[in-house]
């Protein structure tokens, strides 16, 4: 809901729920 996964989304905290 808060995180939106786009085609090219690899930003930690931006679109991903947590950092790998």
Question: Main attributes?
Answer:
20 residues; globular
List segments where confidence is low: pLDDT < 50 over at least 5 consecutive residues: none
- Secondary-structure-derived class: little secondary structure
What is the mean predicted local confidence, pLDDT? 63
Strand content: under 5%
Would you report the number of β strands? 0
Largest sheet: none
Separation of the first and last Cα atoms = 20 Å
Number of helices: 0
Give the % helix: under 10%
Radius of gyration: 7 Å
Can you tell me the overall shape?
globular
Describe the protein's architecture and organization.
The chain is largely without helices or strands and 20 residues long. The chain contains no helices and no strands. The chain is globular, with a radius of gyration of 7 Å.
Ordered list of secondary-structure elements with their pairings:
Layout: no helix or strand
Quick rundown:
This protein is mostly loops and 20 residues long. Helices cover 0% and strands 0% of the residues.
């Amino acid at each position: 809901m808060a995180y939106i996964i786009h085609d090219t989304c690899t930003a930690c905290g931006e679109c991903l729920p947590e950092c790998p």
